[in-house]
Each structure stands twice: as structure tokens, then as C-alpha cells.
Amino acid sequence: MAKSYPTILRFGLALTLITLFLSGCSGWKSVKEWAGYPTQDVEEEMVPPEAQQETVMIDGKPYIRSKNPYWLTYPDQPEYIYVEKGREFVPMQRRFIEAIAKAVGKEKDKTGGKAIPPDKLQEMVKAEVDRILREQGLGGFVSKAKAEKAPVVGRAVAVIPDVKETPGSMETMNRTLASSLAEALRRQKDISVIGSDQVGPALAKAQLAGKLTSRSNIQALGDRLGVQGLVITKLIPPQGNNPGFLVLEIFDTFQGNKTQSIVEPEPAGLKPDAVTKFAQQNALRVAGELVNMDWFGRVDFVKEGKVYLNLGQNAGLKVGDRLKVVTPGKEVVNPSSQAVLGYTSDTQVGELKVTELLGNTGAVALATSGGPFKAGEKVKAK
């Protein structure tokens, strides 16, 4: 009889576990409590309030809380940030799974539901991974590791405080935000920031109408300043139950499009120290977005067969670099919804070779094909 005790004990233990399992959550909670683990209710309370989905309207557009992809990568980054709806962070693993599942489904539809050969499936997976990396701005880094470096790596940018969209009482702090970000960006590799003394005259000469962030104004400012990227800073005061917001908007001056928004609430109030901290914390993220923009420059004027460009060492240009002169692609708009679908491809109209650098912000080139060229035409790395 003594030998039967272990069997009886094992049977009793198994019966107890089954009973707890069948009794539902209450039984499982009691086991967790007995073992010293927090219950589900406690775990839910531990989730920070900023992790909950919440939507706020800024400039008529919805912004939602999103996980900050730089939270565990760089120090002092907030875990959650506000981003424009549709740009929220989606983990790379989830992107891969959804994209590959979609591609496999399409392939099966083509073959009538037949199994896909392993080698074909491997090609599809690689193609989808490459596509997603390119969309995330990572494809360039992957390809550069295997091949030679990009011909031109520098980016010339300007940081401008939006005084039209910021209340007058916060204008000083908004200028502090712009100057703090500009100072932090100057410490980043491959970024050259135009001085604030050049921004004022450019704003006056550009004769801007309407919102500073309209496409035409962004392009006009880019032409005046000779920069490839613009960062517009804003401060939004508290309204009702909503806290104040710190805003950074990043624009590509080639097409005048906004490529990214960084929005962060400031429940403690919009104060100079919070503004400076926000600029320093997000400088790396802003720099990464600017460097990933397509490199381009502009023809300033043409004289005696020489083409003078309004960029030089500030944008990474070197003597011997070859450039192509292009006409930017046209905007494609849905006639029903008026939504912008994208842009047609640029048209190449000639080529240039850089022969001389004129300090930090200018260069001289000779035409190797095409022409005659005129002021304002765009050039890209060949």
C-alpha cells in the first residue's frame, strides 16, 4: 500500500490543477496570488496612462499616442510620443509577417491555391524584406554596407520657428526651441544648419502667403536658403483638458512635403527648460530623418559657360562629383477626393561635373551634357 501513495498524490495534484483551470480566471488568480505574482488587475494598473490610445487634433489633423521607436535605442527618449495618424510605430516583425502573408496570398491566387515552391517562397520573402527596409529608410544603409558609400552624404538644413501658428505669448519660447534644436543638430554628423541670421532675410524675400508650412512656401524657403530640409517648430498652448504640446515638423524642400512630425505633450507646463530638453532629446531622430531625405541641390546662376550651384561643402559636395540636372516629377491628385497619390518620376535634362568649391555654400560645375541651364533648376547626385 505504501507504494500507491505517490500515485495517489500525483493524481490528486493533477485533479487540483484541472479544477483550478476549469474554475476560470478566479481560480487562476488565486494560484498567482499564492505564488506571489501580481493578478491581472494589478498588471493592468501597472500600464502607464500614456500607453493608452488617445487622439488629439492639431491643425485639423488627428495625432495619436504611439510607441517611440527610439525609446530603448537612445538615452533620455520618452517611451511614448504623439504622431500623425497613419504614421504610428508598427514593429518591424509585424510588418514582415503581414507583408509576407499578403504576398503569399496573392501568389496562391495566381496559381489556383497550389503550394508555392520553397525557392520561389524564399525569393518572395527576400523581396518583401527589401521593400519594407526601403520604406523604413533602412534600405540605403543595408546597401551601402555591401557597396561603396553614397556619392553625397551631407544635408544642408534650416530650423525655423513658426510665429504665425504660435501665440505671441509663446514666441520667445518657440524661438528658444528652434535655436536649441539647431544647436543640437550642428553636433550631428553630416548635418549643416543654416545660421539664424540667414533665416530672417529669407523669410522676408520669399514673400510667403498663407501658412508657413504650405508646399509652395516650403519650396520657396528651400530655394532662398539653399537647403534640402526644413524643420518648423511650434508651441501649442493648453486647451481644456488637453496639455500644451511641443511640435517639430520636418519637410523635404524638393517637393515641399512633410516627412515626419514629432509631437510631445507637456503636462507640467511649457517652460524654457522643458523646451530645451525636448529639442535635445529629439535631435538624433530629426537628424536621422533629414539624412534619409533624397539629396539634391539647385542651380543659382549660369555665367560664361559655368554653372554656379548654391550648395557646397555644407551639403557634402566634393570636386569631381557628377550631378544630373532634373525637372521634378509632377503631383498626381485623385480628382474625386483631391488626395495626393504621389509624384511622377523626375526627368533628366543634362549632366554636370563639379570643378570648384566656393567655400561652404557654393560650387562651380561644367556641363557634360544637356543645357543651357537656368537658375532654379534642380540637380541630384548621379
Write a brief structural summary:
The protein is of the alpha+beta class. The protein is 36% helix and 26% strand.
Secondary-structure map:
Blueprint: H1 4-22, H2 25-35, H3 40-46, E1 55-58, E2 61-67, E3 80-84, H4 92-110, H5 118-135, H6 139-146, E4 155-161, H7 171-185, E5 191-193, H8 196-206, H9 215-225, E6 229-236, E7 244-252, E8 257-266, H10 272-291, E9 297-303, E10 306-309, E11 322-327, E12 331-333, E13 340-343, E14 347-357, E15 363-370, E16 378-381
Helix pairs in contact: 1-2, 4-5, 7-10, 8-9
Structural commentary:
This protein is α+β, with helices and mostly antiparallel strands. It folds into four domains: 4-46, no CATH class; 92-146, no CATH class; 155-291, Rossmann fold (3-Layer(aba) Sandwich); 297-381, FlgT, C-terminal domain (Thrombin, subunit H), CATH 2.40.10.410. The chain has helices spanning 4-22, 25-35, 40-46, 92-110, 118-135, 139-146, 171-185, 196-206, 215-225, 272-291, and strands at residues 55-58, 61-67, 80-84, 155-161, 191-193, 229-236, 244-252, 257-266, 297-303, 306-309, 322-327, 331-333, 340-343, 347-357, 363-370, 378-381. A six-stranded antiparallel barrel has the order 9-10-15-14-11-16. It has a five-stranded mixed beta sheet with strand order 5-4-6-7-8, with helices on both faces. Strands 1-2-3 form a three-stranded antiparallel beta sheet, with no helix packed on it. α4 (92-110) crosses α5. It starts with a helix and ends with a strand.
